[in-house]
Design brief:
By secondary structure, this protein is an alpha/beta fold. It is built from eleven helices and 20 strands. The strands form five sheets. It has a ten-stranded mixed beta sheet with strand order 9-7-5-2-10-1-11-15-19-20, with helices on both faces. Strands 14, 16, 17 and 18 form a four-stranded mixed beta sheet that branches. The chain has a two-stranded antiparallel sheet with strand order 3-4. Bound molecules: guanosine-5'-diphosphate, 6-O-phosphoryl inosine monophosphate and magnesium ion. Residues 8, 11-13, 35, 38-41, 125-128, 130, 132-133, 222-224, 227, 238-239, 272-273 line the site of 6-O-phosphoryl inosine monophosphate (IMO).
């Protein structure tokens, strides 16, 4: 068996959580492969809404869920998330496994995240403040603390990392108040003990054993391709590989074990935090998309910047991920629009290109748009493709031709049921 991968093609928040939940019954296991509590994956069903940060979106309908080695885990936030789920009747102790090789986010990682952002001043990234960057930095500089370490000389390993962080914080002029730090640490250490309630496993063996047994696995991405540390709008990115290759390194899966790659995108585009965004709208249309799409961060509540769909960036994302199937989200947000725009090329220094450039600095890159007629039909209660209005079918045909990839699912609302397969 091979694994299928589902990942975001834009700047995150495409609707990954919803679709993973929709697809979950077709898989034996769901695994998160990168990111951490910077993610906020929203699921809605039976009139209830859940936002998951570190826990795979398969937990509501699947018995095997893994937090893979590529994830960075904050025990405090994990505990809050797990306990809230438990209160709503989802007991994860049997179904959720944690990889020993996943790195831990320490309280001082979060302090460093804030201090680094402050030091950058106007050039700040606008991170989620969850300590993601400093934790991945420790991982690659070989200073990290992993979940597996909690069983072996943990106090020593923790103290070494913490003291190194305190030196760095002092250099940044951000030494924490000792009492506040002590309180953070006490909560964190108690949450580390809480982790021991879960099956802490060699995730790479778990996944490969499942495949060997003919079981199917869905890998759930976090963030999106435009936030990938190699291929995104660097340096305004996250610190992990959000692309498909991240599923290999973040779970211990060989590249030849990748099956379908589901690429998920919104019918328009959003971004949270700083960084370039060529199709961003600063006008009433952008505001309308934000209001109709409820484009506010699932975790931070921050306003999401909104703009038209960017096919130059999408084509690039499809290429670097090897996307085999596309999933289009939130087209219902555009239901009332007279016309819809899609960026088909960039004009850079007077020249047109449809190849995603090294820099998408907003001052230099001018989007070139194709205007399409809107479908002007409410679609949120539609249940089958046969109900699609002609202009909507034309819009899909246009996208499929541009992107050279089939759109297999159209999502017309946040609920699990508002999902139409083609
Ligand atoms: P994720 O991070 O990729 O899982 O996406 P988020 O959960 O951060 O953001 C997606 C938001 O859009 C959530 O509030 C979802 O409930 C909502 N959503 C998902 N699909 C649709 C859709 O097809 N239509 C509408 N209107 N909302 C959707
Ligand atoms: P999901 O999985 C949208 C953005 C932050 C910031 C940049 C770096 O819900 O799609 P970080 O805290 O990772 O160092 O922040 O990345 N960012 C996201 N934007 N959705 C996400 O996750 C994001 N995770 C990080 O806003 O610009
Ligand atoms: Mg999100």
């Amino acid at each position: 068996m091979k694994v299928d991968v589902l990942l975001g093609l834009q700047w995150g928040d495409e609707g990954k959580g919803k679709v993973v939940d929709v697809l979950t019954p077709r898989y034996d296991a769901v695994a998160r492969f990168q990111g951490g509590p910077n993610a906020g994956h929203t699921l809605e069903f039976d009139g209830k809404k859940y936002v998951l940060r570190s826990i795979p979106s398969g937990v509501f309908r699947n018995d095997t869920n893994l937090i893979g080695n590529g994830v960075v885990l904050d025990p405090v936030l994990f505990r809050e998330e797990a306990e809230a789920l438990c209160e709503s009747g989802v007991d994860l102790r049997q179904s959720l496994k944690l990889s020993k090789k996943a790195h831990l986010i320490l309280p001082t990682h979060r302090l460093l995240d804030a201090a680094n952002e402050k030091a950058k001043g106007d050039a700040k990234i606008g991170t989620t403040g969850k300590g993601i960057g400093p934790t991945y930095t420790d991982k690659t500089s070989r200073n990290g603390v992993r979940i597996g370490d909690i069983f072996d000389n943990f106090s020593e390993k923790y103290a070494a990392a913490r003291n190194r962080h305190l030196d760095r914080l002092a250099a940044l002029g951000a030494t924490p108040d000792p009492e506040e730090l002590a309180a953070l640490e006490a909560r964190w250490l108690s949450a580390v003990e809480y982790l021991k309630n879960y099956d802490i496993v060699d995730g790479e063996f778990l996944v490969n054993d499942l495949l060997q047994q003919g079981k199917s696995v869905l890998c759930e991405g976090a963030q999106g391709t435009m936030l990938d540390v190699d291929f995104g709008s660097y340096p305004f990115v996250t610190s992990s590989n959000t692309v498909c290759a991240g599923a290999c390194t973040g779970l211990g899966i060989a590249p030849n074990k990748i099956g379908e790659v589901f690429g998920i995108f919104k019918a328009y585009c959003t971004r949270v935090g700083s960084g370039p965004f060529p199709t961003e709208l600063f006008d009433e249309t952008g505001k309308l998309i934000r209001d109709l799409g409820h484009e506010y961060g699932a975790v931070t509540g921050r306003e999401r910047r909104c703009g038209w769909i960017d096919l130059v960036a999408l084509k690039y994302a499809i290429m670097v991920n090897g996307v085999t199937k596309l999933i289009m989200m939130k087209s219902d947000v555009l239901d009332g629009f007279d016309t819809i725009k899609a960026c088909t090329a960039y004009e850079i220094d007077g020249k047109l290109t449809d190849r995603f450039p090294y820099s998408i600095d907003s001052d230099r890159v001018k989007p070139v748009y194709k205007e399409l007629p809107g479908w002007k039909t409410p679609m949120s209660s539609m249940t089958s493709e046969s109900q699609f209005p002609k202009q909507f079918n034309d819009y899909i045909a246009f996208l499929e031709k541009e992107l050279q990839t089939p759109i297999v699912i159209v999502s017309v609302g946040p609920d699990r049921m508002q999902t139409i397969e083609r």
